[in-house]
Amino acid sequence: MGVEIRVEGLTKRFGRQTIWEDVSLTLPAGEISVLLGPSGTGKSVFLKTLVGLLKPDRGNAWIGDRNLPQLPEDLLYETRKLFGVLFQDGALFGSMNLFDNIAFPLREHTKKNETEIKRIVLEKMEMVGLIGAEGKLPGEISGGMRKRAGLARALVLDPEIILFDEPDSGLDPVRTAYLNQLIVDLNAQIGATFLIVTHDINTARTVPDNIGLLFRRELVMFGQREMLLSSEEPVVRQFLNARRVGPIGMSEEKDVSELEAEAAAGNDPGKLPPIPPQLMPSDGRVRPTQHAPGAWLRAHGVTPPPGSFIDDLGRNWIDEWPRYVASMGAAPAGGVRK
């Protein structure tokens, strides 16, 4: 099972520039969380701070029972072994074939022999669908395959936390859909805590259990997926609707006069679209951390837009969910979350 991450009042500055301040959130153990935000709001900086590559100016980042900013170097080094990281471009070594790229952390951080390394590497390559590509160089494969190779490398030390820095960057919509399904399947299989930084709205709407949004140097909102997807916050509505109307401007944020002019013209970021069903694992089982469709909305008295949980096959998942869980036999914990 994954490790809980608890962030309290975290602040990061570069000189006089504040990247974000007083960020507080909890990434529940074993769940998939997504962090959204306009470009330049410090999402990647947040990931680097979580893994201890950057030190915050203020605040705490608890990884289980360890407060990362206060750890001595030896304990920080050990705590980093809890993490696997998928970088934006895969960050593969161009002169190494895929096998050696994926084996690198094992050779660097463990004393395993080559027989054991080969077993682990091939196991992780099979998990991401790369068996048969062991001898290829990064320059000989597609962007989607490089992402999967980077993910296999992130998995070889069996991390309890996996950070994804814009995994959909540079991928077409079809490859992004395949990668999203792979992420959900891996979470169901290994139970690690996942945090995904992304700009892809479809990923944010269908993959995670929890969503957060960074804007104006602060965390606007973080919580269960349906909380954000039904929010009336203008910046949330603008971002999820991909509209020019709203607080987000071309460079970063709009000033008061621009917002007043939009309001006077009757412009509005628009209502949020219907909430789609959450992506299910390929094998049909319910993830232990998965919430029943509509559970948060019912608990908080929020009425979703009509058709909010109807999928491409016309199934209404609010009605279908209990039958689906019953058809799976003995329901895992995710099947009864309300």
From TrEMBL:
InterPro entries assigned: AAA+_ATPase, ABC_transporter-like_ATP-bd, ABC_transporter-like_CS, P-loop_NTPase
Record carries keyword ATP-binding: yes
Residues of the ABC transporter domain: 5-241
Pfam families linked: ABC_tran
Keywords: ATP-binding, Nucleotide-binding, Transport
Location of region: Disordered: 253-290
The name this protein goes by in its record: ABC transporter domain-containing protein
Annotated source species: Actinocorallia libanotica
